[in-house]
Amino acid sequence: MIKYEEVRDLTIQERVNMAARLYERDDYINAETVLTYILDADPFNQAAMSIMSSVYLAQDRYGLAEVMFRATHATWPNLINPLIGIGSAIRNPARFKESFQYLDMALEIEPNNTIALTNKACMLNEIGKYDEAIELAEKSAELMDFDVSPALTDCIALASLGNEDFEKGFSLNRKSLGIKFRKEVVYGDEKVWDGEENGIVVIYGEQGLGDEIFYGSCIPDAIEHSKHIIIDCDSRLEGLFKRSFPDASVYGTRRKAAPWLNQHTWDYRSAMADLPAFFRKKKEDFPGKPFLKADPVRVSQWASTFEGKPKIGIATRGGNKYTNREDRTIPLETFLPLTEFGDLVSLEYSSMDYGDFPIEVYEWATMSEDYDDTAALIANLDYVVTTCTSVVHLAGALGIPCYVLRNKYYSWRYAHQMPFYDSVTIIHCDGNWEEGMEEVVSLIEQRGNVQRIAK
User: Residue 192 belongs to what H/E stretch?
Assistant: First the structure.
């Protein structure tokens, strides 16, 4: 941590220059410290306020970023950067109109500002306006002479996937590796795999747990197209992946020390989310079949616990404060009609107070550090009914019938039906939860394998 004694003899401008260098090196803690020293001495230093706003934004401290950008805008209303900053700091899709208001104000000042265009395209993507997002993003790319940032590439990729243009979307998705939420891992002097070269390939997870399962559906293809596969996955998936992909070497060392580095040689590396670019170029390329295998011993134990009674797993919430949890949360009472078909089982990955709501809770399984526990539980369910969350991917990968009530704002994965999983059905209720549940009840009745329970 930089101490005051280290900057005491520097001029304000020298401190600003130091903070800018620290910010560019992603050393946000020390940058914030130096900026605090500047603002203590000069509370309305324009450069310091601007950099501090960006430091907060880079750390996902969106509330503080918005406050600081607004303060800068109030002090210097003719500056364009605070307008772009406010529009960018408003991350909640439910506030997209407000976000667009500030980004459009910036574009009135400078119509070809590529940062404002890119950020507006990304927000359009967030609310499912894929054609508009692509149009705006490609305009921004053209203005950059197509020397585009990974973030802009990612925006076009996700919008293309939302339109089910899989070849374009997944191809561009590969080029976006390195953005904030897709950090590239380099193990040594190996090359990046192109999906064709026959050799030993390290495949690593670089996103969330649900994403590793989602993209893990391509691992069997990778095994067929390589000499050998080494999987560096989340520790919670190690046992499940070892059983499901017995021809691969599987290590749950993602984000951890990896002793296996001294036990193997390899030729290539590939991010897990890059695999669909090789093997899923059109809808017909998606097998849609189950590819994960739950532990048979634990499956048998759950079967004994449930004693053949119909069981329906439910998850009422997903995401976090940065990924629209509020709009992804379904009121508990919405699930009551399902009790006519069987007992409800909680699939929440964090503690929840159910009060007197009729539901069975097995936190040791749903919050386990070994996802084999969760998989064995889900493998014994007749149905899963859930909001958009990682449970969808586990149910789909196991082949369990799963109904997903889609919220108003959603990831590209939920824009249509998921070709990754035949057993998953997206209910396009867009947050009209009761209407969505009525459709789920109707679909369960049509299946006929779980009958209404006589009251």
Answer: strand 191-192
